[in-house]
Amino acid sequence: MASRTGQPATWPGESSNTLLEGAKLRLRELPSLGRTIVRLGTSAERYRVELASVAGVPLPDSPGKVPEHLPVALWRSPLDWLILTEPGQRPDLAARLREVLGNATGLVADVGDTVSGIELSGEAASALLAKGCALDTSGWPEHGGFCVPAACARVPVLVHRLGPGRFWLHVDRSLAHYLQAWLGNAATEFYDSSSR
Length: 196
Hints:
The protein contains five helices and eleven strands, in the order βββαβββαββαβββαα. It has helices at residues 48-55, 93-101, 125-132, 173-186, 188-195; strands at residues 18-21, 26-29, 34-40, 64-66, 72-77, 80-85, 106-110, 115-121, 145-152, 155-163, 166-172. A hairpin with a 2-residue loop joins strand 9 and strand 10. It is elongated and about 50 Å long. The chain starts with 17 loop residues before the first strand and ends with a helix.
């Protein structure tokens, strides 16, 4: 959901587990969003338009600009996307996408229990992200959603910017605790300076 100004409105689960909060930075665990992986074999690419129609979102050709609101499809690699939906809004999405794919070569999986999310927000969010990711965000549009696969603290993540100073990191649940701890330690300088 987005506000009329284009800025993200209140997202589901805003009361989620806050890991760290200061004047310049907030680090929190994201709520349990709907998360579905769609991965196509090259022979199944012809189903892409119909899959996008059922999902209700475009399946992007490359990393880059994405809508600021849910639902959204995030490019992971060629012919591979992570589709995010609000909790409970599309419980049948994976099943409906599987029906479209039929026996074609591909994978559709509900990964809500295996993918986790961490939000970085605030004035220092970009600086904290830069400590762990070798990303050049200078070429990113000033406003709007943006998403690229990257490594943060050597952990594979999807870096999903929702707008200025607000990032979601989508990560395999088995690595989420490590990444949370790393971000918490790396954020100390921002937290300390914001508390003075």
